[in-house]
Amino acid sequence: MITLFILGGSLQYFDEENQVIGQDDIFTVYKRYCDYCVENGIPCREDLIY
Question: How far apart are the first and last CA of the chain?
């Protein structure tokens, strides 16, 4: 599978009281990707962010 993520800025997640409960940007998405790779014995590509 090939996936292309293009993020401009950040995505913020809000609760019912309109308080920010989470945030994603290119760095959190890339970290999640690398963590997944490490957990599954897959090489993490470092050339994905430029």
Answer: 21
Predicted model pTM: 0.65
Cα distance between residue 44 and residue 24, in whole Å: 19
Type of residue found at 50: Y
How far from 15 is each of 10, 19, 32, 39, CA to CA, in Å? 17, 6, 22, 30
- Does pLDDT of 18 surpass 80? yes
Q: 14: Cβ–Cβ under 8 A, 6 or more apart, which residues?
A: 20, 21
Contact in structure between 29 and 7 (CB atoms under 8 Å): yes
Residues 6+ apart with CB under 8 A from 36: 42
Which parts of the chain fold into alpha helices (H)? 26-39
